[in-house]
Amino acid sequence: GGSLTKLAYYSTVQHKVARVRSFDHSGKDIENEPLYEISVQEEITARLHFIKFENTYIETCLDFIKDHLVNTETKVIKATGGGAYKFKDLIEKKLGLKVDKEDVMTCLIKGCNFVLRNIPHEVFAYQKDSDTEFRFQTNDPNIFPYLLVNIGSGVSIVKVETEDKFEWIGGSSIGGGTFWGLGALLTKTKKFDELLQLASKGQHTNVDMLVKDVYGGAYQTLGLSGNLIASSFGKSTTADKEFSKEDMAKSLLHMISNDIGQLACLYAKIHNLDKIYFGGFFIRGHPVTMRTITYSINFFSKGEVQALFLRHEGYLGAIGAFLKGAEQDNPNQYSWGENYAGSSGLMSTSPDVYPMQRTRSGTFDMLEMDRLERPLVNLPLLKDPSAYIPDTVDLTDDAMARKYWLTCFEEALDGVAKRAAASQPDSIDALERAEKFRQKYWNKLQTLRQQPFAYGTLTVRSLLDTREHCLNEFNFPDPYSKVKQKENGIALKCFQSVIESLDSLGWEERQFALVKGLLAGNVFDWGAKAVSDVLESEPQFGFEEAKSKLQERPWLEDSYSQWLERLKEGPPHKCALIFADNSGIDIILGVFPFVRELLSRGTEVILACNSGPALNDVTYSESLIVTERIAAMDPVIQSALREEKLLLVQTGSSSPCLDLSRLDKGLAVLVRERKTDLVIIEGMGRAIHTNYYAALKCESLKLAVIKNSWLADRLGGKIFSVIFKYEVPCK
Amino acid sequence: VFPWFGLDIGGTLVKLVYFEPKDITAEEEEEEVENLKSIRKYLTSNVAYGSTGIRDVHLELKDLTLCGRKGNLHFIRFPTHDMPAFIQMGSEKHFSSLHTTLCATGGGAYKFEQDFRTMGDLQLCKLDELDCLIKGVLYIDSVGFNGHSECYYFENPTDAERCQKLPFNLENPYPLLLVNIGSGVSILAVYSEENYKRVTGTSLGGGTFFGLCCLLTGCSTFEEALEMASHGDSTKVDKLVRDIYGGDYERFGLPGWAVASSFGNMMSKEKRESVSKEDLAKATLITITNNIGSIARMCALNENINRVVFVGNFLRINTISMRLLAYALDYWSKGQLKALFLEHEGYFGAVGALLELLDSA
After folding, report:
1. Which of A67-80 are b and which e, b meaning 16 or more Cβ less than 10 Å from the residue's Cβ?
2. pLDDT one-digit tens code per residue, A473-503
């Protein structure tokens, strides 16, 4: 680029993962053996890195590449942008690689498609006079068609219809170069950033001729407001008056932004498009220009078109060039996830933090994306995938909730770090790594206090996920593995007696006991501070104690009667999809008896567990072992497994929450094949922090126990209040 | 009742049309009050008024019949900032004693209404500027320009050698896109005399060209700015497609000569120091003109209209812009759009106001 070099590279990252493996129990005393073996192994995953360097430090950038270039097969480096020409010789000489220049616009669009598809909350709209200036958009599964307006020195307007089909439909010569060039002539200010700063201090009304200057007021017949600009620079038509630099810069900024907005709207109208993404150096990280462009688009489209911006706009070209170079690896066939631990996030726009952040961004600004093992897709049962928002509360919007949760996560941090260290008693550097983790996550929380929108919409989910990413970064892949192992072992021992007591009940009593068991199991949640305190201090805290903690009916949210009615009157469900939550009592004594009952009714069950560890949530591989052990005790489960009426799948996620728009493709295929007509989501993370308002095409049950008194209070209840939400989609 | 005036008070210029009756009978002459006579004599015997008022003699329409009277139509303009002096003069010449209505349009009809009343003891009849504009265009086109065509176009606009100005017959004018370039720009889609709509407008107009030129070159008149522009080279100031790509940008079908970034070369300090005022004036003119052409073209496409009529005082003595508009419209629409121009450029609003006066009488 003109001033920054953006580098995209692919690496393999070696990191520790926790694996569980079933023992061969034949002929052994299983009473005193742990349930399964836990081992920490090295795993290699693919990661995409994006780093920015200032062009002044191009040598540093090239040294960096040289140091990191481990693949000796690499003979070619893909480059795009003006610098691809300018620095070609330098790059070739220093790296001994051939520079392969790629078309700027092709790269830009390839990169744009990639981020739109893979990064949640990539897109945001700018909103004036709001607590948070950015409003993030939900990812629409259909990203095409869209209009990309790239404001570099000139303006290019490109219509993108499919991954490979795009067309330059127009442009304008009045762009960033005009602001910079004309601005430098008018104000004798050389730097683009300084010009923008001048502009933000100026009064354009001193230079522009407004409608009221011509009319004395508004032009009422046309409904044109008096403050509208009738003629840009219309008041400077005189040789004998001086105008301030600030005022001229402001007038110029308005002139250019309005003009671009107007053209963009005209093109959008002709091509019948309503999504316009803006990019280019004129926009990049500059709230001032985002504001004026947004104003202009609103004005000219009368609100019909929305000006949208991208968090990683500055990287699009580099990402695209990278993708061109990696075509044989076909990165588009994978799903990718933003790694919150390795990404520096969007810079702040608040004036106080601004200068500091800007210097920082010049030297240290990066994005990391992990290649996920399996492709992620929408749950086919979402009512309206484009309107689905996983998160219940937007903490960027809700300052009170934001303060509470940030503090909550801060307060829990020491405990989490301690547990992480304790989970690896044999490692000599566990304490040191735990401290590094603590520091890193603490810093993330402080950044988020300053700039809540740094990684998109701030939510409880993003706070939890960031913590998981930071733990992984310091090789704590599964701090709860031993706890889970122990709790699974204990719960399995109780399984048969729980089943016996359930079987002794009459039908209606049993249904209630099953639901209560499911809820009680949900109390065992190491993610909730209130609970983890209890579990730490009372290791013998059991299923019965948990049941006694539960709120009596009527519950805080209570549609149990409708559910019971449905079971009584309606035909059995064809297939139920259950998203499980915690290990131990929750899955074994809560979920499995419930699954067993569904199976007995003739309902098939898909049991979905996390692919990777998060807190004490049960993972897919743990669920396989647990199920195997239950099957050995219980003929209903055993035959269901054999006849494939009970299916275990992984969600594709490693989060304590649940994003129904990013689920394992295998799960989605199965859900469709088995004609799933009931979805059960349990736990605070999956059913309250996320998906509380999720609308599905089929019946659904959302169950959770609120283990946080602030949240309970907010929902109008007390701690250990029960949410039982049975929903039937309206016909 | 004479006198017959039409007034269009714009953001920068006041346009005044005056009908001078040539069929005054001896009897009428006898009855003509002194004040009226003095106004008629003053206007018709001078070509300049005060230091800033000018009569465009070359535009005068001779032997026109209006409301059964024969006479000449005069076209006069002066800067809007001299409006108070104009009202003052009206007051000194006892205009109010003539008991005539003064029809005025343009924003100034509203802005100066109070001044007319208090300083000149005159009641203005305010008229909508777009109504007047369309009325004026249709009328002047229908009467022609002293036997010549009012409307013209440029043949072969893309070929500098063979490009020539030719009359255009605007007998069936509808639909047409009317682009009025004054201080700012208004774009109207006209389907009939009564049926029209304002499609959009832009603040980048004549005022922007002139305003920026004053700041960049220190010039003080529109004429001076245009004169400078005619001697400048905008390619020193603008960054062209070929400056970036070394030639055409084939991926997008962009010719190397197209401007990629207006004033784009001015990002560089060395280049800022090496350009002349003339170059800057020319670049400003090209920037504004191309932008208007571009917006007009998009509007024509959106409204499905292929004739675009450009009017307004920005085009006065401004052949560079007219030819560029003709060229740009033709080139970027691949010959689908035609740019048309009218001889009386900026006076149509004032003519429309005069016609309203006669209609109401």
Report:
1. eeeeeeeeeebbbb
2. 999 989 999 889 988 988 999 999 999 999 9
- Torsion angle defined by CA atoms of residues A312, A315, A316 and A318, in that order, rounded to the nearest 10 degrees: -160
CB pairs under 8 A between A and B: 198
Mutate to test the interface with B, among A231, A296, A302 (most CBs of B within 10 A): A231
Looking at residue B303, its amino acid is: E
* Whether A69 and A152 share a structural domain: no
Nearest to A230 among B183, B212, B216 (CB): B183
Residue A335: per-residue pLDDT: 85
Identify the pLDDT of residue A348. 45
In a domain, A709, yes or no: yes
Inter-chain contact A255–B203, Cβ cutoff 8 Å? Answer: yes
Q: What is the pLDDT of residue B100?
A: 75
Residue A42: predicted pLDDT:
86
Active-site pick, B129, B150, B278, B356:
B129
Determine the topology of domain B151-233+276-342 in CATH: Nucleotidyltransferase; domain 5 (3.30.420)
> Is A651 part of any domain?
yes
- Chain A residues lying within 8 Å of B287, measured CB to CB: 173-174, 178
**A620-641: average pLDDT:** 95
Count: domains in chain A: 3
Of B202, B204, B261, the CB nearest to A153: B261
Q: A65 and A107: one domain?
A: yes
pLDDT at A726: 97
Are B144 and B167 in contact by the 8 Å Cβ rule? The answer is no
Q: State ipTM.
A: 0.96
In this predicted model, what pLDDT tens digit does every residue of B90-114 receive, in sequence order?
A: 888 888 888 778 999 999 999 999 9
DSSP string computed for A312-332: TGGGHHHHHHHHHHTGGG-GG
* CB neighbours of residue B97 within 10 Å: 12
Residue count of chain B, please give it.
Answer: 361
Residue A448 within any structural domain of the chain: no
pLDDT of residue A357: 40
Which of A324, A350, A373 is at the close of a domain? A373
Q: How far apart are CA A162 and CA A146, in angstroms?
A: 9
Per the CB < 8 A criterion, the answer to whether B77 and B345 are in contact is no
**What's the CATH fold of domain B4-132+347-360?**
Nucleotidyltransferase; domain 5 (3.30.420)
Please tell me which of the candidates A152, A181, A209 has its beta carbon nearest to residue B11: A209
Query: Tell me, what's the pLDDT at A358?
Result: 40
The two beta strands, B4-9 and B13-21, are: antiparallel
Backbone φ, ψ for residue B83 (5° rounding): -55, -45
Residue-level pLDDT at A500: 95
pLDDT of residue B149: 95
Residue-range definition of the domain harbouring residue A136 = 124-207+243-310
Cα separation, B101 vs B81, whole angstroms: 23
Q: pTM for the full model?
A: 0.87
pLDDT of residue A269: 93
What CATH number does residue A590 fall under? 3.40.50.10880
* Amino acid in position A211: V
B60 is catalytic: no
**B interface test, pick of A147, A182, A243, A324 with most B CB neighbours within 10 Å:** A182
Asked if the C-beta of B200 comes within 8 angstroms of chain A's C-beta atoms, the answer is yes
**Whole-number mean pLDDT of chain B?**
93
Q: Is the same domain home to A353 and A498? A: no
Mean local confidence (pLDDT), A693-699: 96
For A387-400, what is each residue's pLDDT tens digit? 899 999 999 888 89
Looking at residue A636, what is its pLDDT? 96
Q: Are residues A320 and A304 in the same domain?
A: no
pLDDT, mean of residues B171-196: 95
Q: Which helix (H) or strand (E) holds A544?
A: helix A543-549
Using the beta-carbon criterion (under 8 Å), do B295 and A170 form an inter-chain contact?
no
Shortest CA distance from A177: residue in chain B: B264
Closest CA to A692 of A716, A650, A654, A658: A658
